[in-house]
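From the thread on structure requests for the teaching lab: each student submitted one protein with a one-line request. Submission from student K.M.:

"Model TIM-barrel fold metal-dependent hydrolase from Paraburkholderia terricola, tokens only."
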Amino acid sequence: MSTQPSHRAGTQLAIVDAHHHLWDLASGHYPWLQDAYHGPAFFLGEYEKLRRDYLADDYQRDTYPYRVVASVHIEAERSRMQQVDETRWLHEVHERSGTPSVVVPHVSFVQPDRDEVLAAHMAWPRVRGIRSKPVTARSPQERVTGQAGTMQDPRWLDGLAALEGYNLSWDLRVPFWHLAQAAEVAAAFPRIRMAVNHTGLPLDRSEAGLAEWRRGLEALAANPNVYVKLSEFGLAGGRWDADSNRRVIRDAVAIFGPERAMFASNLPVSSLSASFPAIVEAVLEALADYDDAAIARIFAHNAIAFYRIGD
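Reply posted by the TA:
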């Protein structure tokens, strides 16, 4: 008789995907996908592969045969003139397909009509949080601290504070060299739940880079309102480094504990480096020493609680 832990049967594990995207290029405008692209190469791989519709059927196909019992849609950078249109469209998609379960839309914390857009989002029952990316430096060597739109901008902080009145969480997406600054924000707003996107984007897998990433995560984890998403382990050019990914996953869970870590796929962007089964199995392998209760929290229960799925 096998003594293998039951959570090793990944296709039988109940999964709540805490971070994915959908888009329909005919019904909405996604500038980063549809407009002429003149910037540097997309940092996670072959950008052209993303310039197509990605609908609920595509998501369900990519996650089969795993038991994804619920999912969280994170804003997909639809035109900032169509922020509420994206929320409406996602509710229509849910009515047809059951996917996604809840929605995290966008509003810029510094846009003039911020309060009106927030109120319009709240008219839709599946809205649970907001993702609003602060202005960040392009590299660890660049400095933008205190500039307009950064995490030190009083106007930006005022926008973040507005989430508390709506019981909305904040999805925090910054590169690893801004994690320590984000921890200062988390400490200043202890009643706002925050989810670190993409494991804090540990893009530099050198010893020095990982040390800085760990310091940032440790500073964030000191705040009990902050959770971490175990997602997007791909590297530049679509590279998948199994050894360092294993280390990143283990370190992130060791820092936050299994009570504040959430599995997330980042589909379809993550498909530039790995399939959904590969991502699930990589996380399970990295966390092989954790018991079934911890695995159930990481893969489902924490996201259910954080995003109030079922409310």
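TA comment: The beta strands are 14-20, 67-74, 102-104, 129-131, 169-172, 194-196, 226-230, 261-263. The CA atoms of residues 179 and 217 lie 7 Å apart.
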